Amino acid sequence: MLQVDIIERCKQNDRRSQMALYKQYCDAMFCVANRFLKNTHDAEDVMQESFVKAFQKLHQFTGEVSFGAWLKRIVVNKSIDKLRAEQERWVQIDDMPLSIADDNDWMVEESLTIDEVKSAIEKLPEKYKYVVMLYLMEGYDHSEISEILQISETASRTQLMRGKLKLRELLKHKRNGTGS
């Protein structure tokens, strides 16, 4: 059965079609949530809540993007909502730009591993970390990041640039043997 047919049946509350769609996307959506939340139980909860919301709002799915991309956006938003809810106070993001970030300059030393880069991203201050994760790992552009984080595109670019500088600093310490 084609995915378009499955989605149409899901819109009619066909439980078998909903389960088929769930099985098709649950692992990938769990990975997305877990990258943000770093907690298996929270990631599972967010994934489940995201599917519930997706099935409730399926009538809003227009097909302009793939179903997976539409669902991923819900998972990312739910993950960020969960992180915000857990924080006592969300750090205000400074709208004052230093300069426009060069989005294509993400070269790192060849000797660094992916795990070392991911570990360094985790050490970034949250206001930088989320923008870097959304941009680098999830592939969102500044327009989408500004919408997800409810900040301006300028703030997204600024936080990405500052995050990149901080990330380079963390990786430089790692390379020079001064890091952990």
Overview of the molecule:
This protein is an all-alpha fold. The chain contains 8 helices and no strands. It is elongated. The protein has helices at residues 3-11, 15-37, 40-56, 67-86, 114-123, 126-137, 142-149, 153-175. Helix 5 (114-123) crosses helix 8. Helix content is 68%, strand content 0%. The protein starts with a helix and ends in a 5-residue tail after the last helix.
Low-confidence stretches: 88-103
Order of helices and strands: HHHHHHHH
Approximate shape? elongated
- Gyration radius over CA: 18 Å
Helical proportion? 55-70%
From the helix content, strand content and strand pairing, which structural class follows? mainly alpha
Instruction: Count the beta strands.
Output: 0
- Report the span from N to C terminus: 51 Å
Number of helical segments with 4 or more residues: 8
Strand content is: under 5%
Biggest sheet, open or closed, and with what strands and sense? Answer: none
- Average pLDDT works out at 83
Brief rundown of the structure:
The protein is an all-alpha fold. 68% of the residues lie in helices and 0% in strands. The longest helix is centred in the first third of the chain and has 23 residues, at 15-37.
Structural descriptors:
8 helices; mainly alpha; 180 residues
Write the layout of secondary structure elements.
Elements (H helix, E strand, L loop, with lengths): L2 H9 L3 H23 L2 H17 L10 H20 L27 H10 L2 H12 L4 H8 L3 H23 L5
Helix pairs in contact: 1-2, 2-3, 2-4, 3-4, 5-8, 6-8, 7-8
